[in-house]
Amino acid sequence: MTTGHYREKAIESLLYLSAVTAVVILLLICIFLFKDGLALFQKYPLIEFLTGTRWYPTSQPHQFGLLPLLFGSIIVTFGAIVLAVPLGIAVAIYISELAGAKEADVLKPVIEILAGIPSVVYGFFGLVVLVPLLQNTLDLPTGQSALAGSIILGIMALPTIISISEDAISSVPRAIKEGSLALGSTEWQTIYKVTIPAALSGISAAVMLGIGRAIGETMTVMMVTGNTAIIPGFPDGLFAPVRTMTATIALEMGEVPQGSEHFYALFAIGSILFITTLMTNIIAEYIKRKYRFNLGAGQ
């Protein structure tokens, strides 16, 4: 065997070892997380944890109701996606299809710089600028609310959605676009009837990554959402203080006695976050594969 053959085998072995190591590390994290999370339910009922509406971990008896924290995470994430997805896709379309070369060369680096700003800087900006603005403009008791968290998380998710969506749109073969224009379609008709459907797989991946960024964010929501573990009334839910699951773990893990029910309850919240993220990724992968299959069948 030649030296090149041995080199290729060594590289293949190294890549295989890297893949196995990543899987093993993920498996160990799962075991660590779920082991302590499931320990809560040896003393505290699972149904009460999942359906409880009160989070009072220091009361007697303890009350570990997940619903206020789950509600806070959902409403903040939903608001962020409602803001970020249409705006992010629109910006990606503009950069890829409409902007001039010089303009695109300026916009893309600026957007990528936004992705590198630390989350605490976003949180500080939200606390100092956005929170007082919302309080004064909307005449709220406090500007620290789900709306403030949604706006800041939406801004944070924009660079991810824009960058990946722009790459997906730019990767659509030029022959497809030119064929649509040759058949008499306008530029806008070509964009939303040809280019966007062809790039939908990549755009959906961008959206799911944006959702993942919003769900897993901690510092920003901890600074601007008010951290009140209650379920606000329906009309005022977006304008009321809320607390997310991630903020709860960050706020309480440093002070909780190790091995206590409160300690295990925080791990149970982490387990729910892990499962939520996993299900989001599975759904995204299903949508991507289904659309690729349908697109291939249509062609």
Question: How many structural domains does the protein architecture include?
Answer: 2
- Cα Rg: 23 Å
Low-confidence stretches: 293-299
Q: Numbering strands along the chain, what is their spatial order in the largest sheet?
A: 1-2
Write the CATH homologous superfamily of the largest domain: MetI-like
Order of helices and strands: HHEEHHHHHHHHHH
Indicate the multimeric state.
single chain
DSSP helix fraction: over 70%
The number of distinct β-strands equals: 2
Question: What is the annotated CATH architecture of the largest domain?
Answer: Orthogonal Bundle
Please give the largest β-sheet.
2 strands, antiparallel
CATH topology of the largest domain: MetI-like fold
Percentage of residues in DSSP E strands: under 5%
**Large-scale geometry:** globular
Which structural class do the helices and strands define? mainly alpha
Number of helical stretches of at least 4 residues: 12
Mean pLDDT: 84
Instruction: Compute the separation of the termini in Å.
Output: 45 Å
Assigned CATH class of the largest domain: Mainly Alpha
Structure explained in plain terms:
- This protein has 299 residues and is mostly helical.
- The protein has two domains: 3-42; 46-298, MetI-like fold.
- It has twelve helices and two strands.
- It has helices at 3-39, 46-51, 67-98, 101-115, 119-138, 146-170, 174-182, 187-198, 200-216, 219-224, 245-252, 261-298, and strands at 55-56, 63-64.
- It has a two-stranded antiparallel ribbon.
- A hairpin with a 6-residue loop joins strand 1 (55-56) and strand 2 (63-64).
- It is globular and about 75 Å long.
- The chain starts with a helix and ends with a helix.
- Mean pLDDT is 84; it is low at 293-299.
- GO terms for molecular function: phosphate transmembrane transporter activity.
- Pfam families: BPD_transp_1.
- It comes from Methanomethylovorans hollandica (strain DSM 15978 / NBRC 107637 / DMS1).
